[in-house]
């Protein structure tokens, strides 16, 4: 329990008030004041009694000066008291929790006057991370937010720009920010993954992320990569524009407006508390089930349905999208949730799928979009033929994959699409599609999706990694996620990258030995918790994941986009490699392996760095479903880490908010 920090806002507020009370009334000042006052009273009493008996001139002068002394002392004390109380008040104000807010919808509409021709610029942001109570759908919950707003700010930039984000951690737990899908070519230490490419940013510390965005465009996002923290609100979108006329060339269906739509599952309880429940003994991979879901950070629960929750529906309503009947709209969907897959539709609308994880694809007409956590899909929506003013956008969580019945669950969250702008007097009367909704958790079939910029996959891989993904119950009845025989645990104070760079500087074995090998497991790391496949030079690598679990896993590779070569149920056929099409397979950064199924991906390992490959269901990641690739280790051997990156590890409190260590349960027989 010791490493598991939970913040309680009510306690924090009480503590602050106590501090204020002490500052104003209590402590040393108070007793000093009393002693001063009593001295003055004694003097006064003495002088008055003396005056009555015999009032000589000398005595009157003495009395006069005593009065002046008394007034001076009182005045000095009053001024001191006022200064002190003013100071303690302003001190209190600086600690005061800013009122948290939901982000206005306009913030997620992309700039209609965007300059696609601009010279590369540095885009600089100041983010303060702090804790708040907020009610995105009516129910109040503790959240960890950027600048007091939920969800996080949109980062909109051109390819070639530099991003500089100053993160000031004013929260009670440590943090980090991962830039999901960003290649970080040459800046591996800016990838934001605790235990892998950096130490956490401890409470009270600041850190600046600085990197160039080159060689990629499209829809991405950022999120905390510190335990479950992202699920408590630390998420936001990134859009990278292709320069010049490139965006119009890559997007084959024209559109007049461009917007971001975040969908996410939503838990009413603090994610770190739920994680403790999930990982405790005897719990056989029963992932916590969310109570609710959000579209762009909003939902509208009926508080009367939730008598046991602190709920207020004042100013809470479905997200409203004002769309034009004059032109098409691009909606960039991002699943920023921890666990649930969504099926999304806009009633009575067909639309075109045009982008997958930053890869523009030839338009495919669909009317329901399935999206797993961490994935992105752009759709271009033409206005409907039979025009009503209002339509429902429905985002349904696929509850088939939930481990148990959650009594407070509302599986569908809706937004309103509005084509005219009268007052919102009535609800949409639009109709759901008639066919049965998806019952399986798996990716939308991507085999028909063809990237606009055709790139052939290398026809042969140099190396194969076969990963058996499973949950196993081991000592003390702890159920954990395994990739082969490894179950990941983050080492907060010794990230893989720091360890490697340090080992190369000191010429330590076996790391020096592996520099002469093109591919293999680096046994310098204890594979029990840190499975590291390492390459030197540029290699083409296949990963075949075989899923032995009854749940779906959206696997994400940092630092790369990979080719999705094939996937299926059961085991792959013996002649799998004879049936593959290398001409122009889909390239993306997050692909699922369905329950009891398999997925084959291929990537060209040319980006030097330490890159995790992990299930993006936050519960599974915390249970250990993560391994790492060290690619182009020969390049890493030439690196020295920036001082501020190394310095993070020396701060007090880097472990605050980390997931629990297994041994806290050793010896318990409940
Ligand atoms: Cu998973």
From TrEMBL:
One Pfam family here: Cu-oxidase_2
Keyword Zinc appears in the UniProt entry: no
Transmembrane segments: 65-87
Annotated InterPro entries: Cu-oxidase-like_N (IPR011707), Cu-oxidase_2nd (IPR001117), Cu-oxidase_C (IPR011706), Cu-oxidase_fam (IPR045087), Cu_oxidase_CS (IPR033138), Cu_oxidase_Cu_BS (IPR002355), Cupredoxin (IPR008972)
GO MF annotation terms: copper ion binding; oxidoreductase activity
Family: Belongs to the multicopper oxidase family.
Keyword Metal-binding recorded: yes
Region (Disordered): 1-56
Compositional bias ranges of the Acidic residues kind: 29-42
Compositional bias ranges of the Basic and acidic residues kind: 1-23, 43-53
Record key words, sorted: Copper, Membrane, Metal-binding, Oxidoreductase, Transmembrane, Transmembrane helix
Protein name: Multicopper oxidase
Origin species: Didymosphaeria variabile
Plastocyanin-like domain ranges (all copies): 129-243, 258-420, 492-633
